[in-house]
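Suppose you are handed only these lines of text.
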Amino acid sequence: MNKTSKIFAGKNIYYYQTVDSTNLAIRRLADEGAPSCSIVLAEEQQKGRGRLGRSWFSPPGCGLWFSILLRPRMLNPVNAAPITLVTAAIVVENLRNHHNLPVNVKWPNDLLFDDKKLGGILTELKGEPDRVEYIIVGIGLNVNQQPGDFPAELGMQSASLYMAGGRLINRIDLFLSLRKDLLKAYALFFRNGFTPFRDLWKKNNRTLGQEVTVSWSGGKLQGKALDLTENGSLLIEDKHGQINIVNYGEIN
Ligand code: BTN
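From them, the structure of the protein bound to biotin can be written out as follows.
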C-alpha cells in the first residue's frame, strides 16, 4: 500500500494513494520505530481529522495532506505547545515569499485567505508528563480546489491557494519546499524555543488587535486580542480590563 517514489527516495517519505488519516498512519510508523523527520503524504484521506474532533475534507487531486514525525531529544510537553504556531508561521511565510499569496494565520492554527479557511494544523503528542516521546504535526492545505469543489456545508467558509492567487500550484514542488522550511524551523525551535518565531507569527496574523470570542470545552471568553506570550498563548483583555492568558481554544 505504501510506496516511495523516485522523488522521495532516501528521505523517509511514505506516499499513500489513500489512507485513513496521515496523522494516524505516521503514528503507526512511529510506534514501529520510524525515525524523526519521517513524513506520511497522501493523495486522499478517508478519515481526515481536524482539531476538536472534527473531520477534515481531504479529496484526491487537489490538496496537500501530510504529517511529520518529530522526536525531540529532551523536551517537556509544556514547551512543545507552540510548535503549531511555528508551523503556521512557516507555512504562511513560504506561501507569501514563494507564491506571493496573501494568506494569514488566525490563532492558533487556521490558515486563511480573505477570512476563509484554506488550511489547518493538527498537532498530536505522545509522551510522559515531563518528556515528549514524539510529536506529530499534521498539515492540510487546500491547494488547487475551485469554489465549486467544496461540499455545500464548507463552501462559504473555505478557500484554496488557487482561489487566493488565481494560479494552479504544483503540489509536489510545494510539498518539498514546505518540508525543507519546516524541518529547518523545527531544528531551531527545539534549540531555542518559540522566541525566534514569535515576530514572524505576529507579522502574518489576523488575530491581534481584533475583538474575538475564544471558546474551549467548558468555557468561552470575549475581548480584545492584545498579544502573544513568549510561548504562544493569547493575551485577551476582557470588558473589565482584565488580561487573561488563553492557552487553548478556538476563535469564532
Ligand atoms: C484543523 O484546522 O482543524 C486541523 C486540520 C488538519 C488537517 C490535516 S490533513 C493532514 C493531517 N492528517 C489529518 O488527519 N489531519 C491533518
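What can we learn from it? The chain has seven helices and 13 strands. The mean pLDDT is 94.
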